[in-house]
Amino acid sequence: MTRAEQRLWFECLQKFPHRVLRQRPILGFVVDFYCPTLKLVIEVDDESHFTPEGQAYDLERTQKLEGLGLKVLRFSNLEATQNLEGVRKQLHALLELQNTPR
């Protein structure tokens, strides 16, 4: 795992109320984190993801994962290392949405 992924894992996802798996293969892709209960993929993107090629690849990958009914959340390395509280808030907001009756 990258430094940003490690920080997210050790300071946030290990304590997450649902089981989160690291480096999980799905459809031939290895996703950074996967929460099967929530059908949630969490990706931590470094600068290579912000090039035109990286963005095109990520879009295709996200569409394929969403085609399986998965939700894909992306955070930058900067968010995972310098705004972990903001990441935590987004994850907990997602949990609240999951618990809201429809």
Please describe what this structure looks like.
- The chain is of the alpha+beta class and 102 residues long.
- It has a single domain, classed as VSR Endonuclease (Endonuclease, Chain A).
- Helix content is 46%, strand content 25%.
- The chain has 4 helices and 4 strands; from the N terminus they run H-E-E-E-H-E-H-H.
- The protein has a 4-stranded mixed β-sheet, with helices on both faces.
- Strand 1 and strand 2 (29-35) form a beta hairpin.
- The longest helix is centred in the middle third of the chain and has 16 residues, at 52-67.
- 21% of the residues are buried.
Helix and strand topology:
Blueprint: H1 3-11, E1 21-26, E2 29-35, E3 40-45, H2 52-67, E4 71-76, H3 77-82, H4 84-99
Parallel strand pairs: 3-4
Antiparallel strand pairs: 1-2, 2-3
> Which strand order do you get reading across the main beta sheet?
1-2-3-4
**Basic shape:** globular
User: Into which percent range does the helicity of residues fall?
Assistant: 40-55%
Output the structural class: alpha+beta
Mean pLDDT: 91
At CATH level 2, the architecture is 3-Layer(aba) Sandwich
User: How far is the first residue's CA from the last residue's CA?
Assistant: 37 Å
CATH topology: Endonuclease, Chain A
Major sheet: size, sense and barrel closure?
Answer: 4 strands, mixed
E-strand count: 4
CATH superfamily annotation: VSR Endonuclease
The number of distinct structural domains comes to 1
CATH C-level: Alpha Beta
Contiguous helical run count:
4
- Strand content is 15-25%
Pattern of helices and strands: HEEEHEHH
Low-confidence stretches: none
Rg calc: 13 Å
